[in-house]
Amino acid sequence: MQDWQQYEFETRAVRAGQQRSAEGEHSEALFLTSSYVFDSAAQAAARFAGTQVGNIYSRFTNPTVRTFEQRLAAMEGGEACIATASGMAAICSVCMGLLKAGDHVVASQSIFGTTLVLFSQILARFNISTSFVALDDVNAWQAAIRPETKLLFLETPSNPLTQIGDIQALAQLAHDHGCLLAVDNCFCTPALQQPLALGADLVVHSATKYLDGQGRCLGGAVVGRNELIKDVYAVLRTAGFSLSPFNAWVFLKGLETLKIRMEAHSRNALALAQWLATLADVTQVHYCGLPSHAQYERVLRQQTGFGGLLSFEVKGGQPQAWSIMDNTRLLSITANLGDAKTTLTHPATTTHGRLTPEQRAATGIGDGLIRVAVGLENIKDIQADLLRGF
Ligand SMILES: *Cc1c(COP(=O)(O)O)cnc(C)c1O
What we know:
The chain has 390 residues and is of the alpha/beta class.
């Protein structure tokens, strides 16, 4: 395999990992096959024994999936990658591959709701406990670490308030205590943030979001050092969390345009955030690209762009927030994000609806808060559509 790190990011996004078949196809081939034929019984035996490298069965070997894995690894600057059926399968594979009963996890309290359920309810049944701490408070992370802590887990920027975790400081803290740091890089993608270069041990992805970028397929991935990915792969291969080759093929096309899409999402989101901040009925705009953001200096150090996610609080609470959403004609009301189409979410009654009003208040999710995952429509049309309900 070529050393892709000698090439710039955009080049890796378009070229890394491609292996052509005997047909000489230019675009990556889609190998939609569940199994493979052996030349002889002896070859089958050698493949199973591992003395010959080659395809066996698409739960753990597929050329299209492999190309996606090699390309994403090259883009994140990691040694290895394994693709999974969803973002949750990626996070689950990390936990099953690297943790055991009795271990302890420290996680940011501002993580994807389903990840929170995985840690607090599912892993707890297997005697793996988790402490949740404030994303941006390094001292709280330190205080939560115990002798049996094995993993620190975060997302940055957080959703929907775009708080920032200090990847470098948390990597140092993790390593000082013999722990691993895993970063869910879903919102920035490697186009805007590369956690491994900042010291993280693992990056996890929901490819469902910006890596696809057009709302078509579910998928996920884990990227990191060979020695760690080997243990994660062992679980995936056995548990069957595998990515469909069709989805891998769709994501390969998504990766080719990732950089220019993330730049366009960021441009639109910054313009929208600046505009929202001028409206009298908007009491607060949360966007890590605004100089008024509490951790703006850290954002500039850690990210090369600000991303497409923002949220804003309107006067009038839930009735006014719902009115703005219901009066749009173009923008989509959905819980999803990372799409060419702009999506609107009311966190207090959907993604954060499980929390009590007190918990929501403590985490800053007001009843008048609207999350916007800013898409690639023209910014003037996004503004005009939002303005209808004000
Ligand atoms: C959506 C999401 C996930 C879960 O990904 P799926 O592909 O839906 O399983 C994990 N983390 C973050 C930050 C997400 O937004």
